[in-house]
Design goal:
The structure holds two protein chains of two kinds.
Chain A (H helix, E strand, L loop, with lengths): L1 E6 L4 H15 L5 E6 L3 H4 L5 E4 L7 H11 L3 E3 L2 H5 L3 H12 L1
Parallel strand pairs in A: 1-2, 1-3, 3-4
Helix pairs in contact in A: 1-5
Chain B lengths: L1 H8 L1 H11 L2 H14 L6 H9 L3 H5 L1 H6 L3 H17 L3 H14 L4 E4 L8 E4 L4 H4 L4 H20 L12 H8 L1 H19 L6 H18 L1 H16 L4 H26 L9 H8 L8 H10 L3 H15 L4 H6 L9 H20 L19 H6 L4 H46 L1
Antiparallel strand pairs in B: 1-2
Helix pairs in contact in B: 2-7, 2-15, 7-8, 7-10, 8-10, 8-12, 10-12, 13-14, 13-15, 14-15, 14-20, 16-20, 17-18, 17-22, 20-22
Classes of the chains: A alpha/beta, B mainly alpha.
């Protein structure tokens, strides 16, 4: 499964990436997870199965959802509490639920 | 909230922000050479001259002119590119058209004073580097949007040169840009011819007088900055990336001020601006928007609830590099009626203290050196002021203030969390006993 995360600069989401990778490893899931800045999403979305936005850029959600519809990729914003506490397992679960 | 969302999603503002962001890495690279040219060590200049010759500084500034001083040129391309991308039209073609239109709006004259002459003369046939940098930023913005809108209009109306069947698609694609490109160049050319007959003489002068100066006064004043900070914090309190939204509007002004300071710093003149991009990145928002670095320190030192203890440990690493999403969403500072008070106040206090410290000459002003916004406190202040200890000292002063503003509110919040945790534990213990 390929999970693309996006925030303003792709920095704080990259924190979450490492936590999600660990969670995936613990569950025996093979997942490619990476974070990019909002303006780079267009160049990465083709490789993704799901796109998650950091809550601080959820104002981009309508725009990204439109892009996701074109590319047939589900898009949603991450729960702020899970985001703030860098809750890898929960966000991974959320991503998986969106794909299935 | 919906207003903020619409503002942030607005295509032109987004294109401005993302387009100018393209110049940022180059500006930072240029700043490295700038710092090396003006290290404030005694006898540094003589030392360098001894090793590299008399011309060392001129040569060291070559990369600065080619990076930092091309801010406007890069923006002319970048903004058009990003806007076209958002419209779903050919981005690179739009960028190139805008680039040429920007150069067309710029008179290829450079002021020059020949040896022995008293009067300055205009020399033709040279692209003025001064207008390619921060001074040309506003013209670049306007030209980029103007030319991309025309491009979009013409493509949408389907006014393109159609090639007969059998012509390779790559060939006909090359001709798609012809009509919109021609119209853009024609219009900018006519505009320039008209402006040359007015007392403004060049488009750069008009835009500077009518747009740049008033906006600069507004954005470059302490009052304007406090309003901007207040908005940023309010947006963050709603869980939105405030700086990203506000900087779409303010970056051209703040970066322009950075550029002006850089010019003055290079020339050894007094620095004209206090409020620059670095004023916010380096001095106001240590630890991230809301100056949360010392809130994290307070968490590490005084947290009694498990949640705040863990959050402190999680947030200190990113916090050192000015990233504070864990604190903002984890504490949370979002929609928090108690912690919103210091979250709004702290950066504003920092702005006032720093501004007056610099205005009274106690602290060196930001020297137009752009450092990455992720540069940790103390180091950042030293570098951004062109190597003045006072830059680090004011950061330290701000940190102490931040600590004491956040502390009482944090202690109250932590108590609430502790109470919550105890309440959660109670029933668990009871069930354990019954088992």
């Amino acid at each position: 499964m390929n999970i693309l995360l996006c925030c303003a600069a792709g920095m704080s989401t990259s924190l979450l990436v490492t936590k999600m990778e660990k969670a995936a490893e613990a569950q025996g899931l093979t997942a490619k997870i990476w974070a990019v800045s909002a303006d780079a999403v267009r160049n990465h979305i083709d490789k993704a199965d799901v796109l998650l936005l950091g809550p601080q850029v959820r104002y981009l959600l309508p725009q990204m959802k439109k892009l996701g519809e074109e590319k047939n990729v589900p898009v949603d914003a991450i729960n702020p509490v899970h985001y703030g506490t860098c809750n890898g397992p929960e966000v991974l679960k959320f991503a998986t639920s969106l794909v299935n | 909230m919906p207003v903020a969302g619409r503002l942030a999603g607005q295509k032109h503002l987004g294109a401005l922000r993302d387009g100018i962001a393209l110049a940022m890495p180059m500006i930072i690279i240029g700043s490295v050479f700038l710092i090396l040219g003006y290290l404030p060590f005694p006898h540094y200049a003589e030392f360098m001259a001894n090793i590299f010759g008399e011309q060392w500084l001129t040569k060291l500034m070559y990369p600065v002119d080619a990076t930092f001083n091309m801010m406007g040129l890069i923006a002319a391309f970048g903004i058009a590119y990003r806007l076209a991308e958002k419209y779903g039209i050919d981005a690179i073609t739009s960028g190139v058209i805008s680039l040429c239109a920007f150069l067309l709006a710029t008179p290829f004259n450079v002021p020059f004073t020949p040896d022995g002459a008293k009067e300055m003369v205009e020399v033709g046939g040279a692209i003025p580097v001064a207008l390619m940098g921060s001074k040309g930023l506003f013209v670049a913005m306007l030209v980029a949007m103007f030319s991309t809108e025309i491009y979009r209009f013409i493509v949408a109306k389907d006014i393109v040169i159609k090639m007969p069947d059998g012509v390779p698609p790559a060939v006909s694609k090359a001709f798609v840009a012809l009509i919109p490109g021609f119209v853009v160049i024609l219009l900018v050319w006519l505009l320039r011819l008209w402006v040359e007959n007015t007392h403004f003489a060049s488009l750069h002068n008009i835009v500077g007088d009518l747009l740049g100066k008033p906006l600069g006064v507004l954005g470059g004043s302490l009052g304007g900055s406090l309003v901007a900070i207040f908005l940023v914090q309010l947006l963050w309190s709603a869980g939105l990336h405030g700086m990203n939204i506000v900087s779409g509007v303010m970056d051209p002004i703040w970066l322009g001020a950075t550029g002006e300071n850089m010019e003055a710093f290079k020339a050894g003149h007094e620095l004209p601006n206090i409020i620059t991009k670095q004023f916010f990145d380096v001095f106001v928002n240590m630890g991230g928007s809301g100056a949360t670095f010392m809130l994290v320190i307070a968490m590490l030192l005084f947290a009694r609830s498990q949640q705040m203890k863990q959050l402190g440990r999680l947030s200190i690493g990113p916090g050192i590099f000015m990233i504070n999403e864990p604190v903002v969403f984890g504490t949370p500072l979002v929609m928090n009626p108690l912690l919103i008070v210091p979250f709004l106040l702290t950066p504003m206090i920092n702005a006032v203290v720093t501004y007056y410290g610099m205005d009274l000459g106690l602290v060196a002003k930001p020297a137009g050196i752009a450092i990455p916004w992720t540069t940790p406190p103390i180091i950042g202040g030293f570098l951004a002021t062109g190597g003045h200890i006072s830059g680090s000292v004011i950061q330290l002063v701000n940190l102490v203030i931040d600590f004491f503003v956040y502390l009482p509110f944090f202690i109250m919040w932590d108590k609430l969390k502790k109470k919550e945790e105890l309440a959660m534990e109670q029933p668990v213990q009871e069930t354990e006993k019954t088992e």
